[in-house]
Amino acid sequence: MEENALVDNKELNLWEALVPVFVLIAMLAYNMLVIGENAGDYNNQLILLIAGAIAFVLGLFNKVKSQSIIKAIGVNMKSVLVPIVILLLVGALSASWLLSGVIPAMIYYGIKLINPDIFLPTTVIIASIVSVATGSSWTTSATIGVALIAIGRAMGLPAGAVAGAVISGAYFGDKMSPLSDTTNLAAAMAGTKLITHIKYMLYTTVPSILITIVVFFILSLTGDSKLVQGTEAMLDAVTERFVISPWLFLVPLAVVILIIKKASPILALSVGVLLGLIVSYIFQPQLFDELPSKMLFLSNSTWAGVGLSSSNEQLQGLFEAKGIVGMFGTILLIICAMIFGGIMDAIGALTRISQALLSVATSVFGLYASTVASCLTLNLTASDQYLAIVVPGKMFQNAYADKGLAPENLSRTLEDSGTVTSVLIPWNTCGAYQSATLGVGVGEYALYAIFNYVSPFMTLLFAAFRIKIAQLSKES
Question: Do 227 and 311 share a domain, yes or no?
Fold first, then answer.
C-alpha cells in the first residue's frame, strides 16, 4: 500500500490515458475473434508489451522520466513475486498429487459419492466452505478445485461449467472470510472495521451466492441426465492404475490446516508437494517398478509434468499434470501484464481515468457506479486485484464521506466489484492463475462464473433502490 502511491500527472489528459487501453482491447479482440485458434501461444503477452510501449512513449511526451516508469515496473514486479512462486508450486503440486494417488482418490470417491444430477451446485457449496475456512480462492482452486474439475470431467460435464462453479464458491470465501487478504485490504482502504465490513457485505453477497446456486441447480436439471456412463469401468480404470485409500486425503487436509493456521501459502503448498512425493513411495510403488530411478522420475515429473496411461479414454486427460514447466506461459503473461500496469501507473493514466469516473458521480447511485467502473477498469488495465482495491479506495474515500455515507459502503463496493471481477480477465493475475491451475481457459469459464458477475450488479441494485445504505453517524 505504501509503494502504490497514486501518480497524478497534470500533463496527461484523459484521452491520452485511454489510448493504451483502446489499443489493448482492440488488439486482444482481433486476436480472439479474427485470428482465433491460429493465434500463437504468446500473442496476449506480446499485445500487453505493445500497449505498454505505447503508454511508455505517451509518458515521455508528457514529461514523465523513464527512471520513474522503470521504478514503477519494478514495484509491480515485486508485488507478483509471491504469486509466481505459488504458481510454480501449484505446478509441482499437481504432479506430486497425481503420482501419490491423491487426485485419483478424489476422482474415485467423488464419482461414487457425489450425485451427478446436483454436482454443479454441490461444487459451489464445497468450494465456498473451503474458501471461507482458508480465506484464499487460490488455495481453494489448487486443492479441492483441481479435484472437482477432474470429477466433473469424469462425469462428462463441461469443464467451463465446473470451473465456473469452483470459482464462484472460491471467491465467495475470498470476500467473506476474515482470513482473506482482500477482505482485510478493502476494510483498511475504506477506513472501517473488519467485522463491520464483513457483516455489511452479507446484504449483497448472500443473495449473489444464492442466485448462483439456484442457477447451477437449474443447469443441472436441464442438462443430460445420462452424463455418467460406464461408471464402473471408470472406477476400475482408476483402481487398475492406483492404490486408492481414504488415508490419501490426509495430504490435502494437511495443506488446508496449515492455511487455516495462517501459515504462508508458499509453506503450505511446499508441504503439500513434499507429502505428495513421500506418499507416492508408500502407496503407489507399482508406478516405479519398471523405472531405474524413483528419485529421478519424481523430480522430472514435478519439473516437466507427468502423463500416465489409462485403459479408459474418458480418464486419460485426468491422468496428466503440467508440472513446473507447464506454468511458464502463465508466469510470462503475468510479467507482461505487470509491465503494462506499471507503466500505466507511472505515467498517471490510472489516476486520470479514476478521476474522470469520480467526476461524473453526482448522486449516490452515480458514486456507486463510478466505484464499480473504476474497479473494473483497474482490473483491466493494472492487471492486479490489489490495485483494483487500493486505487479506487484512495480516490473515492472522501467522496463517500462528503455524501454522508458510512465507509462500509465503499469497502463493500470494492469487494463486490474489485475482488470478484479480477478472475474474469485473462491477463489479470487472478484470471491467469485460475486458468493455469484449473486447466480451463477464462473464455470457457467466464460465462459460468455466475457469482463473480452477479456481485457488481447486486451492489448497483442495492444502491439504485437505496437498500441498506449505511449513513455516517453525527459523531463521524
Answer: yes
